[in-house]
Amino acid sequence: xxxxxxxxxxxxxxxxxxxxxxxxxxxxxxxxxxxxxxxxxxxxxxxxxxxxxxxxxxxxxxxxxxxxxxxxxxxxxxxxxxxxxxxxxxxxxxxxxxxxxxxxxxxxxxxxxxxxxxxxxxxxxxxxxxxxxxxxxxxxxxxxxxxxxxxxxxxxxxxxxxxxxxxxxxxxxxxxxxxxxxxxxxxxxxxxxxxxxxxxxxxxxxxxxxxxxxxxxxxxxxxxxxxxxxxxxxxxxxxxxxxxxxxxxxxxxxxxxxxxxxxxxxxxxxxxxxxxxxxxxxxxxxxxxxxxxxxxxxxxxxxxxxxxxxxxxxxxxxxxxxxxxxxxxxxxxxxxxxxxxxxxxxxxxxxxxxxxxxxxxxxxxxx
Length: 367
Fold this sequence. Notes:
- By secondary structure, the chain is α/β, with parallel strands linked by helices.
- It has helices at about 10-25, 55-60, 70-85, 95-110, 125-130, 150-155, 180-185, 245-255, 265-275, 275-300, 320-330, 350-365, and strands spanning about 40, 90-95, 115-120, 135-140, 160-165, 195, 220-225, 240-245, 305, 310-315, 330-335, 345-350.
- The chain contains 12 helices and 12 strands.
């Protein structure tokens, strides 16, 4: 039986789509074939402004490279990242998004006799990966201000193979303060790997926060994950990396397939790093739209967790699952339920028009 998704008609349509995209080049910023035009997607913490124009141009020009294995460009990206962070290139490992880095860490450092300690709630993927490795998953509730409770996590880390800290945290968009992070790293056992996920690092504007990448030199048990999915708008391309000492990279590589990052993602990432406006532009737009949403929620009397990312958590003052469904019925996709916070709804900060639609729907559903 013919697969309907690969019919001659659909194949011709896809070829036409590719030709159109190639012709448009860097102007094709929001091209989404067959996507429902009436749905506002605010569910996955994606960057609605998309990749850098330089990245789109690099991908368009890179079509001719599709026949080649990506090793050369992977080396080029690792070298560029190493220069940017002021570290040896041997301390950079690329991944198929930072999600692959998390999976590699779970495979390398957790197991039946090596538990993992995480916050509750936090990004769940690494707990699932550790579960596959039959590791015990120890969850420590966030503090009253939604930061990681590092004192309790430290106490629970005895015998742990891995401690995972998402900073800023997903789904709460909250930060854990820099002095608490440095204190924790100084006290945790050298035999326990600490994985700090900095996926949303670029969105933070707080003197209480800083990246821990400079501390990798001091702590052999520290791994820091980054991604091109968020501020660089490349979630669909899958490109991330980690920074850590060479011994850890050797252990991670044992669990990694060859050439896990595709060549289009690599050329786009290289071009993004050379576009000085991409990060500043994303920060500015996200901050401006977020402030507008804050003002409207304040006027309506709804509480929210102050956000240090490109999403936020709003206290809906009722069980959130029916609210999520009500938004979906009106064409607005918001985040899923997070059981530790049953009354909170996670919402990506979209473009100004998208958030206008969100706020209109909010009034219809909640007011």
